## 1
Amino acid sequence: IDSDGLKFNGDTAAANALSDYEEGTFTPSLDFGSGNTGMTLSTSGKYLKVGHLVTVWIYIYVTNKGTSTGQASVGGLPFAINNPAGVFSPLGDRGRINTGGEGVSAYVSSGAAFPLYHGGFDGAANSQVGEGNFQNTSEVDIVTSYFTNS
């Protein structure tokens, strides 16, 4: 190991060195529009960061969705997202999220949060998930990876 980080297989290029590895926990959030008035939920989040690549595991259980309205977004991420092209990342079990049988996906692009969608996941034929799709006792399981500048 030198000042550039850990290098493998005799590689001497600083750009290829592993200079950052981190794992930990964080507290994810769920908002409708930009609010969560009256919402009660249980959450857990874990992350693994290798270089600029972050993988997160998120679980959200909504006990009471409250009175806020608007598009659902997940925030509280441990590092800001920097995926310039944007990526649709399918979610795991979407227990009690009413989307008419369509799968739910996170649109991971940039910033501190990502919105949820359902539908075609082709960038055009999908719809935003909002408070109307949630019930009290809805669950969201997410495993996704994204890039960060951190």
## 2
Amino acid sequence: MTHRGRCNCGAIRFSIEGPLTEASACHCTQCRKQSGHVMAGADCPETALTIEGTLAWYEATSAARRGFCPACGCQLLWQMHGDPVISINLGALDAPTGLRLEKHIYVADKGDYYRIADGLPQEP
């Protein structure tokens, strides 16, 4: 299975060879500030990811970084430092993805302006 995606302007294109796993919606403050709301992503081994174009990285914390397009600003990736797994932002994938959210994470940190009512598991 191959997944493909790109940023909004097309300067960054990527493909993932193999499955994406752990599709989740993150409700942490950083993801909400970065995206304007909830961030959804799924994981793959970094070795399965091929990127075309020059990606920029933002060191979100001392523990993680976010990959984005320097031209249009679209956030595409998230990765813990030193982790061989990388998270792909689901909104950047070309349809059909064949994916479904599996869970919500960092819900203890979610915004006060919305409810989570889809019945999926929620991790504090």
## 3
Amino acid sequence: MGGLFGVVSKDDCVHDLFYGTDYHSHLGTCRGGLAVLDGSEFMRHIHDISNAQFRSKFEDDIRTMHGGAGIGVISDNESQPLLINSHLGAYAIATVGVIKNSDQLAREAFRKRSAHFSEMSGGGINPTELVASMINEEATFADGIRNAQSRIEGSCSMLLLTEQGIYAARDRLGRTPIVIGRKDGAYAATFETASFPNLGYEIDRYVGPAETLLLTPDGIEQVNAPGEQMQICAFLWVYYGFPASCYEGISVEASRYRCGAALARKDTVRVDLVAGVPDSGTGHAIGYANEARVPYGRPFAKYTPTWPRSFMPQVQEVRDLVARMKLLPIRELIQGRRLLFCEDSIVRGTQLRDTVQRLYDCGALEVHMRPACPPLIYGCKFLHFSRSRSDLDLAGRRTVKELEGDADAHLDEYTDPKSDRYAAMVDRIRQRLSLTTLQYQELGDLVEAIGLPKEKLCTYCWDGCEGCGPQCEMW
């Protein structure tokens, strides 16, 4: 994934920019960058933050940065923000998303004979630079952003820091959020509304899909109107959104409570303790425990001061090591007990298998697992919310191949919780993880817990449905 934060202010903006960007570090910390505009002079710093906190890398830099407008980014891989010189003027740009047709767009640019791109490691093209090239094809920033959004397959939200102000543009189908905050003399654009309270901002509005706003210290101007169709990623509320944030006016934490409660209402198992697989399963587990009236506890404590998020390392063996070293079992809450865990999802299942075994090693009598979403069958092609390289990395899709000999066989049945094939898949995953029982959330209950209509949510990773609503045969 990745995250964006931008601010325009009548006073110096660097304090808000620094801390506002830092509040996005949970979204995938590979590189971080800040750019500030002081009059007509740009100041920029980019650092590799894969093995260090964002704040520690930029604390010295911000002492030299001054200006009334700035943008910051936590990036999956590419270095940004980029500084661009063009006929539109100089500007800085930061993006979040996935461009699936980048090779095609690059070929189209090369055919015009005037385009060129800087080289990235591995010989690829920086996707943010590719977006800038499409913006530069038009006569205005508004037209350029609209040109880029119309041609990108996947998703791309962006912030442009210009002498006119900050352009905040949400991706064409609104798969990722951009929210505007305000306080006296300043406006901010953010991915995570959790960045606002401690900086004194109040939510002003949620940017619509394909909408572009121009932020200045004096106000907000709409330069591209929002589209009618929205497909915001439902996984925001399930997993990678920060608990204190809201998207489309819906609280992440409250949604997770409702999600856990829905799991409890369809459950009959008797247990001694409900827990979350920390941290992302905690909200779901609290909702489950409150609904089921079963004690909530923490059989694991997570040690986070020196360990990154376990999905971040590129190598599976390192991811597994990080996951194991962070979780410290509390034997007194495990031994001789029947435990039920809520997890945000089961992606590969490799780390979870080790976690379950450690519970049995500490004396657990039973271990029940309740993922807060359906089995992941399709790899996401719109965002980078996991490190999966193939659909076969997913526990659900891999199990389909084991059962059928063909990973693509009968997928409509494997996504139907009422089918025999679905039951066989879940039981095979249960056996592989050594669980007493395994029961996934049903998609309808998840949609209800979020509180948006199905047609406004992207649920592709669970049902393979693109742009689906109640009229869809898969719904």
## 4
Amino acid sequence: MFPEYRDLITKLKTTDHHFTRLFDKHNELDQQIKNMEDHVTPGTPEEIENLKKEKLHLKDQLYTILKKASA
């Protein structure tokens, strides 16, 4: 996610607790979605869709933080 901001992400993960929390939650949702899609854990298509929307919302927030921090 955001390879052009790799160094900045590393920096923010050590200095910005809000960013770290959002980043970790995004990764948790990503894993949860993969597990549901691979039938490792149960999940309806609606649940998966809702998790994907939540993940996208987090990604938007992370991108906003990254753009602001890089300016």
